Amino acid sequence: MRIGLVGVGRIGAFHAGTLRRLPGVESVVVADADGARARDVARQLGTEAAVSVAALLSAGIDALVIATATATHPELIRRGIEAGLPVFCEKPVAPDVDGTLEVVKYASGSAAEVQIGFQRRFDAGFRAARDAAQSGALGWLHTIRSTTFDAAPPPAGYIPGSGGIFRDCAVHDFDAIRWVTGREVSQAYAVGANRGDEFFRAAGDVDTASAVLTLDDGTIAVVSCGRYNAAGYDVRLEVLGAAGSLCAGLDDQLPLRSAEPGEPFPAGPSYRQFMERFRAAYTAELAAFTEVAAGRAASPCTPQDALEAFYVAEACELSRRRGEPVTISEVRR
Predict the structure, then answer these.
(1) Domains in the chain, ordered, with CATH?
(2) DSSP assignment, residue 136?
(3) pLDDT per residue over 223-243, tens digit each?
(4) Strand partners, 254
């Protein structure tokens, strides 16, 4: 299989290296708006670089991976579909709901499969939590607690185009909550705070946020996220039921220390970044995409899935600004 990849920034170069090592992938062709960067990554990986997206799409590829800036996603997904290619695109599908809806409609009218990159669906702990929740092993669920804290904030220039903390960061939590529980979110109440750098406030964003979500069966989900967690990169999902409970992300590299005297857990060095925490999940995610590209599997995370998570993010942002609960039906188009 010959795979084309657009965008070789941090996550794109990481994906290119992962794809290069996957069984069944014979070659990877990369392209980037910065041609020199594309050539440099290609040279490091011993693969090819295309001079443009058009050249990439004409290079005899069997599938397309998109790891570019968010604003370019809708157009690149469309071009991949028009070329009859299976498409993998990093989240989000588009910067806003309307753009996401356009992609959903376009993709639904095509035979080409589109997979959106929510890698937590491929993490072993999250998968175990899902199996336990949906098998009934935990009894009926009463509380979900989801956490995403970055060890350090992104660059100031990233924030104005990020869509805000709920659309950019917590959307992973929203997708994971839907996927693990098998339920939909019906209402959101969100708050945010600015205790860090001024550039978050200047962009109309916050650096720390929490949301209380009500699921359609009455389960309560509490989401906490933030940009300043110097202890390390902290992603966990706690699933609490009447008959039992589980936590994904509770391992020796958890960046949280016990205050109990003599308690050694967790003992390992803390995770510092998302690629370290989810390395195995990213590999499994792209391996799943090769199965989709080969026609042996349907997309495990569709644009419609991404849209549903985005609706929750929209409701949270609206709630934060209004200071009151917002139903998902209010933001749904």
Answers:
(1) 2-119+283-302 (3.40.50.720), 121-273+309-331 (3.30.360.10)
(2) T
(3) 999 999 999 999 999 999 999
(4) none
